[in-house]
Design brief:
Blueprint: H1 3-11, H2 18-30, H3 36-49, H4 53-64, E1 82-86, H5 94-104, E2 109-113, H6 123-127, H7 139-149, E3 151-155, H8 162-172, H9 180-193, E4 198-205, H10 214-230, E5 234-241, H11 252-263, H12 269-286, H13 291-303, H14 306-317, H15 328-331, E6 337-341, E7 347-352, H16 354-364, E8 380-382, E9 390-391, E10 398-402, H17 405-417, E11 419-422, E12 431-435
Parallel strand pairs: 1-4, 2-3, 4-5
Antiparallel strand pairs: 5-12, 6-10, 7-9, 7-11, 8-10
Helix pairs in contact: 1-3, 2-4, 2-8, 4-9, 4-10, 5-12, 5-14, 7-14, 9-10, 12-13, 16-17
């Protein structure tokens, strides 16, 4: 087989066989079979002409097996291996609490997460605000922490789905990121490589999500559920609203503080609704507890302190402080400028351009415009007003945390512009739909 002939076949609307897809993925992974120009051309052909379900399944399987595929059988774990993945949003700190909550209920959660890029934050960036936390441990340590704590949140290692790593880097600079089939294969290849028994997806829509339109997000959710189950991984998807930030904070260390407060009993209702709904599906799908009992188990894990204890054990196991939960303010960084941001006039928040809040965090230095960029973990916003809240003189939109005056002023202007005043809106449920097979 010749790469250029297969690229031409797909360019002209043809269908690639399983063997042809495996050949192309092998060439992507080894860095020799396909040159960067050929990978870019292939990505564009797939982007323009799409893939049917069988092609998506074949691509996902081939990318999964382009590197190591973890097996947990030798660990003799007394529970199922289950994970959650989110398509990302502003203030999305769910993974921080969800992994230890599900672990406290009897499942094991080896969560491979990513860093932030663009206006959405990354789970790894939040954990790396903890001094000493190792986001890229060797596999032996990863396995040990999962066994001992029940969960471990780490980044993608070089030997897990390497074809995805190269393909995504090229998609990022060739205008092919938004391909439904390629997004599906990218997400699922890493999850299948983690050796999961079950997966629950959090697919977000709204102004703070990558896919703003509900119909686009649903199409992605359906693709992921269909392909994952077709590849042998039991998967469900929740469609959740990102038309306002999730929780009351945006920014890495600030979101970590909110997550720890959540585990200790201080919970934003909307954030709790999403986290609990995902946890219920994870326990039900993995066989730990049916939905009718799962919610009770989750609330008990929180009330007893078991979820917080699992979180503390995971942090310590991956190199963080052993007393992190007790002395969190001694360890997390704090910005030198902390002050309220006020709207120029009083009124009720009718609508929020949530993406612009994420941009404001970027302007403070709390995110990346380039994958290699260092970020400031201390900056961001707390006490963020949601829709229906009254803001104005004496009632701030949020509390700003900044490194310097220049970035503070710029971010404050962006934040103010993100808020529209008017009549109090009706608040739809944060979990809009659940897709099950």
């Amino acid at each position: 087989m010749l790469p250029q002939e297969l690229i031409r076949k797909k360019r002209d609307g043809g269908r690639l066989s399983d063997a042809e897809i495996e050949f192309l993925v092998k060439g992507i992974a080894d860095g020799k079979g396909l040159a960067d120009a050929q990978v870019g051309a292939l990505a564009m052909a797939l982007f323009l002409n799409g893939m049917d379900a069988a092609e998506r399944i074949a691509l996902t399987r081939a990318m999964t097996h382009s590197g190591n595929v973890l097996s947990w059988k030798s660990e003799n774990l007394p529970g199922p291996i289950v994970d959650k993945h989110s398509t990302g949003g502003v203030g999305d700190k769910v993974s921080l609490m969800l992994a230890p909550m599900v672990a406290a209920c009897g499942a094991f959660v080896p969560m491979i997460s990513g860093r932030g890029l663009g206006h959405t934050g990354g789970t790894l960036d939040k954990f790396e605000s903890i001094p000493g936390y190792s986001a890229k441990p060797d596999l032996a340590l990863f396995r040990r922490v999962v066994r001992d704590a029940g969960c471990a949140v780490i980044g993608q290692t070089a030997d897990l789905a390497p074809a995805d790593k190269r393909l995504y880097a090229i998609r990022d600079v060739t205008g092919t990121v938004e391909s439904l089939g390629l997004i599906t294969a990218s997400i699922l290849s890493k999850k299948l490589a983690a050796g999961l028994d079950a997966l629950v997806m959090d697919v977000k829509f709204g102004s703070g999500a990558f896919m703003a339109k509900f119909d686009d997000a649903k199409a992605l959710a359906q693709s992921i559920v269909e392909v994952a189950n077709g590849a042998g991984l039991r998967t469900r998807a929740l469609l959740t609203d990102m038309d306002r930030p999730l929780g009351r904070t945006a920014g890495n260390a600030l979101e970590m503080r909110e997550a720890v407060a959540y585990l200790k009993g201080e919970r934003d209702a909307r954030l709790h609704d999403v986290t609990k709904a995902l946890a219920v599906e994870m326990l039900d799908l993995s066989g730990v507890a049916p939905r009718a009992q799962a919610e009770t188990k989750i609330e008990a894990a929180l009330a007893s302190g078991q979820a917080a204890e699992r979180f503390a054990r995971m942090v310590a196991g991956l190199g963080g402080p052993k007393d992190f939960l007790e002395r969190i303010d001694s360890y997390l960084p704090t910005a030198p400028i902390i002050r309220p941001v006020y709207a120029p006039s009083r009124g009720v928040v009718a609508k929020i351009d949530t993406r612009e809040i994420g941009i404001a965090v970027l302007e403070l230095g709390g995110g990346r415009v380039d994958p290699a960029q260092a970020i400031d973990h201390a900056v961001g916003f707390t006490d963020i007003a949601g829709t229906g809240a009254e803001i104005g003189p004496g009632k701030p939109i949020a509390i700003l945390h900044a490194r310097d005056e220049a970035s503070a002023e710029k971010a404050a202007r962006t934040l103010i512009a993100a808020y529209n005043l008017g009549d109090a809106p009706t608040t739809p449920p944060v979990v809009r739909e659940t897709l099950r097979m």
